[in-house]
Amino acid sequence: MNKKKRIIVLFTALICFIAAELYAQKDISLKEVFKDYFLIGTAVNHFQLSGNDTLAVSIVKDQFNTVTAENELKWEPVHPRLNVYNFEPADLFVEFGKKNNMFMVGHTLLWHNQTPAWVFKNDQGESADRETLLKRMHEHIQKVAGRYKAQINGWDVVNEALDEDGTLRQSQWMKIIGEDYIAKAFQYANEADPEAELYYNDFSLENKPKRDGAVRLIKKLQSQGIKIDGVGLQGHYKMDWPSAAQLDSTIKEFAAIGIKVMITELDIDVLPYKDISAEITLTMDNQDKYDPYKNGLPDSAQKSLAERYSDLFKVLVQNKNTVDRVTFWGVTDKESWLNYWPIPGRKNYPLLFDREGKPKQAFDAVVKTSKIN
Ligand code: XIL
User: Fold this and answer.
1) Cα–Cα–Cα angle for 51, 106, 266, rounded to 5 degrees
2) Å from CA of 26 to ligand 1 middle
3) Where are the extended beta strands (E) located within the chain?
4) Is residue 248 a part of any domain in this protein?
5) Which tens digit of pLDDT belongs to each residue from 89-140?
6) Average pLDDT over residues 313-324
7) Which residues form ligand 1's pocket by a CB distance below 6 Å?
8) What's the pTM?
9) CA-CA distances (angstroms) from residue 295 to 72, 308, 322, 333?
């Protein structure tokens, strides 16, 4: 073979290799890869549900078997004013889940954020009393969880009821009703849809004091005979928090009290930021030093993110008998909430698919962990 021919043959082989690699990558689907381990899913937003982001929607259909509504079922959008419900966006979510045969998670019935101020007020604009607020909570849960009875498969009944030290957060729910507001919320949810799974969901449960608080809370509900099926670790992780060992012991500790464990809002923040909490009311001003990857994530950082995902997924795979579901908080880096929280206008890279919807190194790293045992 002369030199020219050799170059042509080599070039053709190279093209075939690249095409095969691309094809193989396209074929890899997380829901297939993890099908014997846990459900794998993503939060979906209104832009996707209303058909305006077809790229993200095709990724959701190819890759995931469970979806969570990112905002559509929170009190504020679904029940903005007294006696006024807006179910249109939430209906789109449920239609989408049904059409694609997905396990649907309702997020969330009770929270201190994204809940309008009127909820906690009486007709005179003063603080509502316990009885009024309980009645309001009951009606809300009946209407929302009742509407999607036998359609939405699991509910984050109460979101973020704990402070970092493991005591109950002094939210309006807590101040007005008292600590049994949590038990009541679970009872009402069970009444509205007896088949639905019911979860307690929070961030930073990997930290010991808060985890202990959650264990106390769940055990108390169990001892009162109240149905609670699972605990959601939100999973808004950083590059250096939590450690793999911390995640492992957290999963094991919750499994030991007999409930399902799920990672419900997974993303890994690659940008510099001091606090580890996921409290959404925190905000900071933007500065260049907090937004170092405006022009793209360098390969070294891409690689570190892949390693970080790999370390955490190894723990999830090793605990596959107790981890029930892993849900990412968004489909591609483009729409992640971490681009606008806690500092608006930054460019973050927390997920497995890049802004063009292509799988990142982190995607390959996650897939590889499925083969470790
Ligand atoms: C976030 C959404 O992603 C944003 O679109 C919204 O503006 C604020 O809330 N913990 C939760 C989620 O339980 O509901 C939050 O979602 C992220 C932190």
Assistant:
1) 80
2) 30
3) 39-44, 66-69, 103-110, 154-159, 197-202, 230-233, 236-238, 260-269, 323-328
4) yes
5) 999 999 999 999 999 999 999 999 999 999 999 999 999 999 999 999 999 9
6) 98
7) 70-71, 159, 234, 265, 278, 280, 337
8) 0.92
9) 32, 22, 40, 14
Q: Is there a catalytic annotation at residue 32?
A: no
- Per-residue pLDDT tens digits for 333-353: 999 999 999 888 999 999 999
Q: Range of 296's domain? A: 31-369
Q: What is the DSSP string of 279-302?
A: -TT------GGG-TTTT---HHHH
Q: Which residues pair with 359 in a beta bridge?
A: 353
d(CA 173, CA 192): 20
Q: Which residues contact 118 (CB under 8 A, 6 or more apart)?
A: 81, 82
**pLDDT of 17:** 59
Report DSSP state, residue 128: P
CA-based end-to-end distance of the chain = 47
Residue 14 lies in a domain: no
- Check residue 276 and give its pLDDT: 55
Whether residue 277 is predicted with pLDDT greater than 80 in this model: the reply is: no
Distance 45 CA to ligand 1 centre (A): 11
Q: Are 200 and 218 in contact (CB under 8 A)?
A: yes
Residue 36 inside a domain? The answer is yes
For residue 94, the domain's CATH number is 3.20.20.80
- Residue 301 tokens read as 């950082």
Cα(305)–Cα(270) distance, rounded to whole angstroms?
7
Take residue 223 and report the two structure tokens written for it.
Answer: 């001892």
Residue located nearest, by CA, to atom 4 of ligand 1:
337
> What was the pLDDT predicted at 246?
98
Residue 159 lies in a domain: yes
Amino acid at 61: K
Residue among 353, 362, 364, 313 at smallest CA distance from 24: 364
pLDDT tier at 201 (50, 70, 90 boundaries)? very high
CA of 227 to the centre of ligand 1 (A): 26
Structure-block tokens of residue 241: 């928090």
Q: What's the mean per-residue pLDDT of the chain?
A: 94
Catalytic pick among 70, 206, 265, 335: 265
Q: How many domains are contained in the chain? A: 1
Active-site entry in 72, 160, 197, 206: 160
